[in-house]
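FIELD: query
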Amino acid sequence: MFKFWSSLKFGSKLRSINRKLSTNNSNNLYPIRKIDLRICGQLYKELKLKHKLYRNSPNDGLSVNIEYADTYCEDRNNSKPVIVGLHGVPGSHEDFSQLIKYFDSKNYRVIVPNFPGFELTRETQSYWDSAEEKPQLVRDLLTAIGVKEVDALVCHSGGLSPGLY
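FIELD: result
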C-alpha cells in the first residue's frame, strides 16, 4: 500500500472533460479528465545540483496539463479501493481500457494517467522523461486529486520503472 502525505503542496486546477473518447473508448465507457498542475518542483531543485541537463528546469516545478482516466464519481460512494495503472512507451490510458471497465464494475476506483510525450521535452528543455520525473509526476497527480492511498499498482511495459521507483 502506498501512502501520499498531505504535507506535499502543489498548485492545481482540476476540470472534468466530458467528451467522446478516441477509438478504443468510443463508447465513452469511462471518464477522461484533465488537470493543470506543477510537477517535480523539489525534485528539479535537487537535480539541478547533480545534472547539467536540468539547468533550465524551473525551481517551482513545471506546469503541465495531464490527461487521465478516472472512474471517480461524485454521485457514488468513493471510499472504494484505488487501482493505479501506468502505461508503457508508447502508450496511454487506452492500454488499460478493459481493466478500467472491469474493475469499475466491481466498485474500484481506477486511475490511469497519460505520461507526457517527448514533445514536452522539446518545448520545455526541462522534462526529460527520467526515472525520477515519472514517479514524481504520478505522486503529484495523485496528491492533486486527493488520493492518499493506493491499493494496487498495475504497470505495463515501460510503466514498470516509475512503478518501482
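FIELD: remark
The domain at 2-164 is CATH 3.40.50 (Rossmann fold).
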